[in-house]
Structure formats: C-alpha cells, structure tokens
Design goal:
With 394 residues, this protein is α/β, with parallel strands linked by helices. It has helices at residues 3-17, 75-85, 141-145, 160-179, 197-209, 223-235, 268-278, 311-332, 363-379, 386-390, and strands at 21-29, 44-52, 55-63, 68-73, 90-97, 100-106, 112-118, 186-191, 214-220, 241-245, 258-265, 283-289, 335-341, 352-358. It has 10 helices and 14 strands. The protein has a 7-stranded antiparallel sheet with strand order 4-3-2-1-5-6-7, covered by helices on one side. Bound molecules: S-adenosylmethionine.
Length: 394
C-alpha cells in the first residue's frame, strides 16, 4: 500500500475513534483508471458520521450526474473502501477534523502527497443521534405530490407522523432487502395499499436511491384510492408504479418477489402472507392489525388460564399469539423471520412488523417446526390459525 495512503487511513481511523471527524470528501475521478471498484458513473463521495444503536457509522453519499445514493458503512468497511479507491478510481481525499484537515492527493502517475492544515476556529461536530438528520427520504417530488410536503418544500404539520412512518418503514425495508438475495428487478405487490404513501416510498427508494429497476403494484379494495394513486404515479413519472382495484384474496401476484401488506385488517394479513408464500416471494413484510381470529378461540390450559383473567391482557395475549404463530408458520415455510416494533405507538397503535426472508428449509426441520406450532396451539386451546387453513395444513 502507498505510504501516504496508509498514513491517511491511520489518521482517519484514529479520528473516527476519537470522534473528531467533521466530514470527508472523495473527489477527482481518475479518468485513466481502468479498474473500477465502484460504479464508474460516481463523480464524488461525501461522507458524514452518524450515531446508531449499534454505534457510530459512516454515511457515504455517492454523487452521480443526476442522482445521489446513500449507503452506510462501518469503520472497517470504510477503511477497505478507501484503500481500494484512493489513488485508483479517485485522486483526492479530504478529511476535515475539528482542529485540522488532511488532504491526500495523487498525481496521474500514482505519486501521492499528504498535506495537513491547522485551523484556528475549531469545527463543530454534529454527530446525529437524532434520525431526523439521517432521513431515508426528505423533501422530494413524490412527497409533495402526496401532500406530505407543501409546494414550497415545507413538511406539513399534520403530516409529521406520516413522514416519520415513511422514513422508519424505508429503514426497515432497506435492511430487509439487504438480508435477502434480491439485487435487481424488484417486483413488489403491496396489498391493501390505501393512499399509497409507503408504496410510493418503496418505488422511489428502489429506483431513485438504489438506482434499480422496479415494478411495484398496489392492490387496493377502494376504487377512489386506486384512481387517485394512479393519477399521482403518472404525475410523478413513476412508470413502474401502478395500482389496481381488487381484493387481497383474489389477486394474482404469481410473478412477485416481494410481498408487502401494511395494516391489512385481521385475516387479510394471512391472505397476503399466503399469497407471498405461494408466489415464492423472497421477502415478505407485514404489519398486522385488528387481530380477531385467535381471541375467539383462546382457552389457555392449566395454570396458563390465569393469563386471560383480565380482558385487556387476554386481548394482548391473543394478538401476540396470532403474530407469533404467523411468524412460526413463515419459518416452517423456509423464511428467516424477525418480529419487531415498527414505529413507536405514540405515532400509531398498529406498531408491529414481521419481516420474512426466504432461506429454504429441509422437510425434517419443517416437520419439527409444525410440531412446535401444534404444541403451542394445544397449550392455549387454539384450534386453528387462519394461515394454516389457507396453506391447507388442516
Ligand atoms: C389501514 S389501510 C393501510 C394502508 C397502507 N397499507 C398503509 O399502511 O399506509 C388498509 C387498506 O387496505 C384496504 N383493504 C383492507 N382489506 C382489503 C382486502 N381484503 N383487499 C384489498 N384491500 C383491502 C383498505 O381499503 C385500506 O385502504
């Protein structure tokens, strides 16, 4: 490795540990470089630090001629990227610290120099702990069209909760995509798409942020919402986004690789999961609501019967069991499943999310999982889960 490059990466790494980095820029594309580590279209990279629950990460903003793509990296990943890019695909890196700046500059023959500049007034570090500074999406044309932002680019007061929900959703969606095998050509069915906020957000994220192709279909019972969303999709020039009137139960989504159903009522969530499993979707994401099915059946056995002594606790227990069994069924069908809080209940009471990424399962493991589900049901006196019926297991 080039000596100056080693020095630069060492300073970067130490500064990261000491939390004194203000920003980093990578620029001056090397036109003579033939070996591209990242997309050759990228003109420059702007890097900032931000705080996550798992620690500080680096947000890389890749600047293309007509778009920006943001990706997050750990320190080790960033170091590797610097090592691969600098002096090859890019000829300059500027590291701005609180008290100084370091400038690594390569000439076309590959010779490098490292220039240090002290500064008199220390720069402030604005390490974001608040996700507000690291939104997945902010003022963009589609958010204006949907009325989340005003025409002047202001977030509307009565749309703040929706805005938070959209961003939180995109965060989970992007993570789920990363853990799946999906790379290109997303074919997404959003069941019960309603006013389409999250449907538009997904389309925008895949096409604009990730720069990939997507065919996103919203399936919605209400014709008025379908018409409105189709008009807006046209205005937004989202040519791969369309909405159609229909029910989750009757819709045909055979070519889909991502199944989404957010806040579909009661067993409509099971209908959607069933469609996802049947169409071999790589990724299934649901945020269930209005859990009624298990409540009607639940009768915990033995000492567990105390769990239903109080109405509210019985209701919560039924909801939890409904979603637990959904998740276990998905696992038995070969999905790796996660259950977590979608968004704090101060924003919406419907706050649980189940994501399932297809990984495959052996017949033996599947039988074991089904036995576990049956044992659980027996303990709680549950005769059937609607999803089992749809899958023809009963
Ligand atoms: C609570 S809204 C959620 C909208 C959107 N998914 C979201 O999370 O913002 C539920 C939507 O699903 C639609 N819906 C409910 N059951 C349905 C079904 N069986 N088939 C198609 N659409 C359905 C409703 O008309 C409504 O617009």
């Amino acid at each position: 490795m080039e000596n100056k490059l080693i020095q630069f990466i060492t300073v970067f790494s130490e500064s990261f540990e000491n939390n004194i980095i203000s920003k980093i820029t990578i620029s001056f594309k090397n036109k003579e470089n033939s070996e591209n580590i990242i997309d050759n279209e990228i003109k420059a990279i702007y890097i900032k630090l931000f705080a996550t629950k798992e620690g500080v990460k680096l947000s890389f903003n890749f600047r293309y001629p007509t778009k920006d793509i943001t990706k997050n990296y750990t320190l080790e990943e960033a170091k590797e990227l610097f090592n691969n890019l600098l002096g090859k695909q890019f000829l300059q890196a500027d590291l701005f610290l609180t008290h100084a700046s370091y400038h690594l500059i390569f000439d076309k023959k590959g010779k490098s120099k490292l220039v240090t500049k002290e500064i008199e007034a220390p720069r402030k570090i604005e390490l974001s702990h608040n996700k507000a500074k690291n939104r997945m999406v902010e003022d963009t044309p589609f958010l204006r069209l949907l009325g989340v932002y005003s025409a002047e680019g202001k977030l509307k007061t009565d749309k703040q909760d929706k805005f938070i929900q959209i961003n939180k959703y995109l965060e989970f969606f992007s993570q789920a995509i990363q853990s799946s095998n999906l790379k290109d050509d997303f074919v997404i069915a959003d069941m019960g798409s309603g006013k389409g906020y999250l449907t538009f957000a997904m389309y925008d994220y895949i096409t604009r942020t990730l720069g990939k192709k997507a065919k996103v279909s919203g399936i919605e019972y209400r014709q008025d919402m379908v018409d409105l969303c189709n008009q807006l999709a046209q205005k937004a020039e989202f040519s791969g986004l369309s909405f159609r009137q229909g029910t989750i139960e009757k819709s045909n989504i055979d070519d889909t690789n991502v199944l989404i159903a957010l806040h579909a009522c009661d067993t409509a969530t099971d209908e959607a999961i069933f469609k996802g499993i049947n169409s071999h979707s790589q990724l299934i994401m649901v945020a269930p609501c209005c859990h009624k099915q298990i409540r009607k059946q639940i009768k915990p056995q033995g000492e567990l019967s105390l769990l239903t002594k109080f109405g509210i606790l019985e209701e919560r227990l039924s909801e939890n069991l409904t979603d637990l069994i959904r998740s276990l069924i998905l696992e038995a069908c070969g999905y790796q499943t996660k259950v977590f809080e979608f968004i704090n209940s101060e924003h919406t009471p419907k706050n649980l999310m189940i994501t399932a990424v297809f990984k495959g399962i052996s017949e033996e493991k599947k039988t074991q999982k089904i036995d576990e589900i049956n044992a659980l049901k027996a303990q709680f006196g549950i005769e059937f889960h609607y999803l089992e019926k749809l899958l023809g297991w009963l």
